[in-house]
Amino acid sequence: MSKYVYLFNEGNAKMKNLLGGKGANLAEMTGLGLPVPKGFTVTTEACTRYYNDGKTIAKEIEDEIYEMLSKTEKIVGKNFGDPQNPFLVSVRSGARASMPGMMDTILNLGLNDSVVEGLAKLTNNERFAFDSYRRFIQMFSDVVMEVEKPKFEKILDDIKEENNAKYDTDLCAENLKEIVKRYKALFKKEKGFDFPQDPKIQLMEAIKAVFRSWDNPRAIVYRRLNDIPGDWGTAVNVQEMVYGNMGNDSGTGVAFTRNPSTGEKKLYGEFLMNAQGEDVVAGIRTPKPMESMKEVNPEAYDQFVKIAGILENHYRDMQDMEFTIEKGRLFMLQTRNGKRTAAAALKIAVDLVAENMISKEEAIMKVDPRQLDAVLHPNFDLKALKAAAVIAKGLPASPGAATGKIYFTADEATEAAKKGEKKLVLVRLETSPEDIEGMHVSQGILTGRGGMTSHAAVVARGMGTCCVAGCSEIKINEEEKYFIDKNGKKYIEGDWISLDGSTGNVYGEQLPTVEPEMTGDFSTLMKWADEARTLKVRTNADTPADAEQAVKFGAEGIGLCRTEHMFFNADRISAMREMIVARTEEQRRKALNKLLPMQRSDFEGLFTAMKGHPVTIRFLDPPLHEFLPQEDEDIAALSKEMGMSFEELKGIVSSLHEFNPMMGHRGCRLAVSYPEIAEMQTRAVIEAAINVNKNGMSVIPEIMIPLVGDIKELKFVKDIVVKTANEVIEKSCVSLQYKVGTMIEIPRAALTADEIAKEAEFFSFGTNDLTQMTFGFSRDDAGKFLEDYYAKKVYENDPFAKLDQTGVGRLVEMAAKLGRQARPDIKLGICGEHGGDPSSVEFCHKAGLNYVSCSPFRVPIARLAAAQAAISSKDQSQGGAGSAGQR
Amino acid sequence: MSKYVYLFNEGNAKMKNLLGGKGANLAEMTGLGLPVPKGFTVTTEACTRYYNDGKTIAKEIEDEIYEMLSKTEKIVGKNFGDPQNPFLVSVRSGARASMPGMMDTILNLGLNDSVVEGLAKLTNNERFAFDSYRRFIQMFSDVVMEVEKPKFEKILDDIKEENNAKYDTDLCAENLKEIVKRYKALFKKEKGFDFPQDPKIQLMEAIKAVFRSWDNPRAIVYRRLNDIPGDWGTAVNVQEMVYGNMGNDSGTGVAFTRNPSTGEKKLYGEFLMNAQGEDVVAGIRTPKPMESMKEVNPEAYDQFVKIAGILENHYRDMQDMEFTIEKGRLFMLQTRNGKRTAAAALKIAVDLVAENMISKEEAIMKVDPRQLDAVLHPNFDLKALKAAAVIAKGLPASPGAATGKIYFTADEATEAAKKGEKKLVLVRLETSPEDIEGMHVSQGILTGRGGMTSHAAVVARGMGTCCVAGCSEIKINEEEKYFIDKNGKKYIEGDWISLDGSTGNVYGEQLPTVEPEMTGDFSTLMKWADEARTLKVRTNADTPADAEQAVKFGAEGIGLCRTEHMFFNADRISAMREMIVARTEEQRRKALNKLLPMQRSDFEGLFTAMKGHPVTIRFLDPPLHEFLPQEDEDIAALSKEMGMSFEELKGIVSSLHEFNPMMGHRGCRLAVSYPEIAEMQTRAVIEAAINVNKNGMSVIPEIMIPLVGDIKELKFVKDIVVKTANEVIEKSCVSLQYKVGTMIEIPRAALTADEIAKEAEFFSFGTNDLTQMTFGFSRDDAGKFLEDYYAKKVYENDPFAKLDQTGVGRLVEMAAKLGRQARPDIKLGICGEHGGDPSSVEFCHKAGLNYVSCSPFRVPIARLAAAQAAISSKDQSQGGAGSAGQR
Asked: What is the pTM of this model?
């Protein structure tokens, strides 16, 4: 028989999968002899079982819970539901991976009408007892019974107003009793029955509620964004309550062993006196910094500093801890490896190596590559920043620079993003887990309330999104959608503001940005990563500017230059259109001749920017209709410009219409129909390479034929390329090497890769299209049903973001194998957007590819991910336990 | 060193691949001691080499040709270019497979200004010599030098008119000399140089022309239609001329050992006296039936009958022979297994078994399954036929009944077909190889000239298309596009006529048709086929009528019922639309409840029609927008009907728009979004099965979930199906078995078939979509570039017609293997249109599938193809040489 419930002293930190992160660490701390309130953990397997059993808790698990409850009662010497000596507990979720704020917590469970009286007597603190009870009723009603929270808050506000109380702490015991009375009345009105008085029923319902919360929509979204499998489930921790709200000698707080924003080695955190934990996180009262605890409770502070040191040394990583002081006595409620900004992650990793706490390889494993984004993106231009007026200042909750139009609800921000808005800033009084999607689409988050550990701050740091929190200098009116800055100026939806997440400054205008410097800890860690990795990292770049940026980021070549992007410029599109509407090959060649010098100079620019690194140039790919207007009005305008009749041009546009453009006349199919296009592009590539090589470079261009599905297709186009290239080279009287290869993006190409490798000198896996074709859905259309798929847990990941290793991956592995069989020295790479996704990079490493190619800003991410993949697979092959750090 | 040229006495019939069909059979006849003019064959490998060498004949091959020429000169005792004793030859193409009229022939080669004089003297027949010369000049100029034929015909017509000659035979020697003079002048004017006088140059140019003709556009089209690989190449036969145009004791003809239309065992053919071969085939003069040869030349006739018998016995098949009588002496110019109508093929196969000439298995191999179409399609309704007036009568050149709108050029017929015209009849004076595509799209062909072996007749029989040839009772004006019937009535483009290919009758109206009887030779051969095959044959049918038709054709179940076809009926589409525009699940269920009884009764009908055979029902597949109108006008009308505003409905239509509908919200994706649709369909299937089983049937319905790409998708929908089905069954208090399976039509499903087989009780390969996704092109759009692909020989086949065994086939084999590994008793079938394509059926047999499913009319084709596949693979495994007959 499985064991579904563990006392804290039965577990340890290695049992994370079974006990969840929180439960495992509570057990570990218990084992370390630290002051942890007693309790037990209901395992993640119980959660899985709960779902398998049709959302019920099996009798055997229920029995085991009661058994462990009774053991715990004995240990603490208190009894559940006993007014004389009541045992009160918290019920908290705790999954394998941290999902802050995603799931539910209930405090003070075990209280009822008679226990509250007993508690008041026992503590001699009626105010405390009823404060706890009203909190419990609200939390339990909201989380377990689904009575809406604002209805309770309304009552609280009413009573505060009736009694002229500013803060909750201003309310007296009588006020709180009145609240309890009204809360219970509200509950009965809403639910039709009395608030449950039996603590065992309260407990079992609370556990079920936590299990249920694993599958609430915001948790599902969070898991998708953070790559957490849905079948992990959550554990539930039931733990003796300790009280931070027992008066001014009590309090609660959260702290980090190092600064999670900067990485600085200094205890960092905040606490609130006379409060329960949720008050700190919810950001209703603004908490005080940790240092001030030295004065308030020097004894507890010293003990805490000591414990923090023990924990950091024990876990060999920066710790994020929750604690409560009950009447001067310190209790640890949680510890975990702390979430941190990218800058902090880099500094901490490098510092821990310097402190001899970890190895370089361990340091590499500690930084989540996805986080690097934050240190790579631009900061504000300093000049502009100096000239700009600060309209308010808040807490620097998550670094970075954001500029965008303001929105006052997460939904509106999400909507705006869907409509194509690229830059937006979400402005909220405070954020809640419901806001998660809106936060995700925003470049910056500004809140009026809450501290550095408020929901907004924690989530924004995790996302690498810039955040200014607790900015009380602005007055936000969410309902009427405006805010007033410190000077009295009003900002409405759509106005531009800028946020500096590193200073907390808010600017009432759009500010220009500059590139970040790639130095210090970043450069140290990346150097270590480069030493560790075997996979090369290239970039997808279509312009010399992109290419230069990518080289700065460490790109070792261009894996994909999409030549068509060069044709959309105003000065080229008309020659391109002339080519498309040509009725004869002669006309087409005439138009192509106009494009030739432009293409050639594009390529010269790219080759020069890449300084001799390999450059893969993909030939024209999109269907031709993409270059023509589709609306009658625009067709009319263009027809005039091109000196043809409206009807004629309209006819051409119609004839190019496709039912499924994704599966239409594009890629190498264009070159089969119009070989003269491939001829022109070959000429441009080869002439450009010859020209730059004359200036001392040694470019070996790689020509890539897109959308090949059959060896004969590739051969047809390759023959044109080779013939043209050799003519140009011969005429130039210099020697030049070049390669011809193909993209593997059609399933048939992967399936027949042994054939195709006979002609292709390299394969570049175009995993965007390969994913589309392999799944049989188009990226443009899948959005409509993928939401249903996520909601119904059919899919958990967007296969366009994370490479589908089971299906698409099987094709990639097959093609790599077949390709190498036919041509052992074939060069293999990937150039889909997956090239910058860490788990996909790991797959590419395992599949034995030579390189990944991704957008310039993802190059460092890919470098780090490649290093982690190399270390992991070395560890695995050595049987070592290569921890993937926070991943 | 390869041998590129073979004397006829060096080869035999087994060397078909090397010598081509004609060359191999000339060699075989030579070996049999039959009277064959001497000569040699330049091999197909020489042709391939010609193309590989950039369309030149290598020196070594040229030398070998001259060597063999000189050997042949010695054998015949004549010399090339020697006026005293001239050696004249024919140069004919001859590929591995017969491609009638597709490639070029040159007769009388070796003539020049002095040889013609010598020939006149030698034969004492000046008329003959110059007739031969003028034919040669024209043919050589046309075929080798590309001077347009009509320019020569104009001269011939002028001379005929100038001399009041009706037929060529009415012209005297002087006339012919004048023609030669004008021909040569024309040649010089057109080409700028004199007509080549050196016979060796003539020969080498002629051989090159034959090689070139392998790649002319009509040959490419013919190969594609007939599944002949482009790399086979053609051989060239150089053979001593014998003359049917040496006067009235000479002649030429073609004959079959049995009647190629009916299969009757009786010598069948026609001949022309004083003519060369081309005159018979071209249909300029109407030839006489073979019997009349008995009177004209009884000796030659007797000899021919004897040779025909020898050849049929030798080849054990009906022979198609060409012969020439030169001054009373018989020469055999060709023999081959004769093309025949489907009816004839069946009769001959069955008769040959009865005559103990072949075994049943050989008989099965002798019938081309693709031909069966002709005996399966309807004939005219007899009553209507009796009432209809015959407007003209021609030769019954290819059986069947055709009714359609008339077109006067192949191009216009092709155009009309592209625009969606389904029924058309091509009316031509005579057809030529250029007309091949127009003939292919036509249901019937009517020609004003030419006999039973004219181009139109031969090609139509091969295609299984109804043809009435040589219908001189109508006067056709091709230029002005009309014809006049025997009563003087005029018919213009677009008028309806009907053709009876078995009687030669033409009717000036649209006639109704009736189903064919499946008896006699057909039923005998099909019985043999059923005994031989292991693969089951099912049908794709959506209606009871289709299902009944298919059962008559021998279907053993329904492999695919597309439920959506049932929703397009006028009485259902409105409930369907109500379902689509529903805003809530409740509204959707209400609309689905209206559809339920209709679906149930559809399924009852299908189950009843199939009499207990298995029925696979595919759930709703197409994207929902297909059920809604797209044009504003229609949307407005529907919005009124549905009682909603135009804007609202337009909004719904827009929201359903997809960029790539093929890869959009369809298939099981609909059931994931709207499980209530799958619920309704399950209920309809299960209730229908219960109802018919109550009436004594024992249906085991098979529910097929379409477009699955991931096991979780299938599981999600299957769970709904199983839950609903079990509820219905439980409520009904009877027991019912059913299966749930999936279509494998997404590459990912094939790649993860081991996973998917855990939930799927059967796989049906949907090779239409699987081909689209695997190739990455949509059927609707590929037409635009596939023409270019054929023209440039990148593709030779339409992968939607013939299963791509290399790519798509690899997926099918992989999925079959993985599926069987995971579930050994999994049922595997194919339901794409490939299910009725013989080569694809063979593939399915080899891949070990359990059944193929195809449209009702293709069921017999699939049965026969399955039998052939079983026999072939048995022969192969036994090392036997299972000849594929005419295939």
From this structure: 0.79
